[in-house]
Amino acid sequence: MSMPFYVAPEQVMKDRADYARKGIARGRALVAVRYADGIALVAENPSNTLRKISEIYDRIAFAGVGKYNEFDQLRVAGVRAADLKGFQYSRDDVDARSLANNYAQILGQIFTHEMKPMEVEILVAEVGVRGQDDQLFHILYDGTVVDERRFSVLGGDAEAISARMNDQHADDQSLDDALKSAAAALSGPDRTLAADDLEVAVLSRLNGRRCFKRLTDAAVAASLAS
Amino acid sequence: MSMPLFPIGTDPGSSFPELLKRVGLAPTLEATGEVHVPHATTCVALRFADGVVMAGDRRATSGNLISHRGMEKVVQADQHSGVAIAGAAGPAMEMIKLFQLQLEHYEKVEGSALSLEGKANQLSMMVRSNLPAAMQGMVVVPIFAGYDLRRENGRLFTYDVTGGRYEEHDYVATGSGMLHAGTVIKIGWRDGMTRADAVALACRGLWEAADADSATGGPDVLRGIYPVVATITADGWQRLDDTELTTVFTSIVDEVRAR
Question: What is the predicted ipTM?
């Protein structure tokens, strides 16, 4: 019987992390930003049918970057977990924190135990009844959860985009301002992104029970031009 | 609660009832013999120029007793459809809850809503799965109505206990007062009615059913409980508020008094 070569665990983890990071960096980025009436999610996504941002529950949205089939599988699992919990207990008992923990468990488990880590970064956002209760959970490929306050950046070139967001972000800004700053941060100084390059959705406190709403290209164009 | 992930092949897809079965939460009804539960009564739906009107009284009865005065049997299923239920109140409410969840679950998983036809078929399957309970006296017979965004018109569906689905063109009534309410609407119905006329006709149907059928409740002015009346058009579901219903029923009362 042949013995497998010994590889130091540090090396294994580093290789997996590098692999996942490379996969994620290839994709385009996504920004979630709080504004006065909720949370806006803006992704650079030329496709009109394959979504990066979607609804999980009444006040909760999901966003993913990286490998589409992998984060879509996580999205569907999230919808199922949320609908089951709401069915078993009550709609009020479904919260982003427990979903984020579940995602972290799955990603962490896959990262340490499977051959290939998931090449995804995901965001679970929940809009509160009041502005100060808004929550953004940013979950990395290895199951690390980061709880973010004002905005969250996922995907390739996240550091530069974060720096640009930091310069422009203001608390209690309008939706138009939030979209303009998100689009500018995503595009950087050397190019501009038009409405049809972006996928935009909001979780708005003003939308009734189901807070999630996609914005049409026309609505996004109007916001960006305002 | 752990997150439900399924291997390819056993994945329940966008079906919420299938998902409930996989995780062992599917509702089971295994009572033996006849059971007596509160019953919900009369509901009507009719087509008008811009869509459909649905209306239902608020009474639930157990034998000769009124068990509930404020029950809402006409409920929104999703943005462009609604369900009205007559029959055993408990299973009916559970069915509505599951149906609403299924429509929303499908919409979220698939990224687009089911067609109206698809929703009607889905409800048919749910009624059929209630057949064992129906054999024990817990019959649930819903009306499904909605605005078909593809055909751009309002559509009505009625069901029997076996899940049989029948599309009605003009109007439909269900429950203990269906004969009275149905007859009133049958006589008054015209093609291309306005919203106001359709609402008045639906209310008149319920009024006559309440007048002749002890299990159907009329407008309860004392407690401020009015039937649930809603319209579904291209703009979606809209429930009429009590002020508008007060006006409609006042004019019915005036007309009846003047006879």
Answer: 0.89
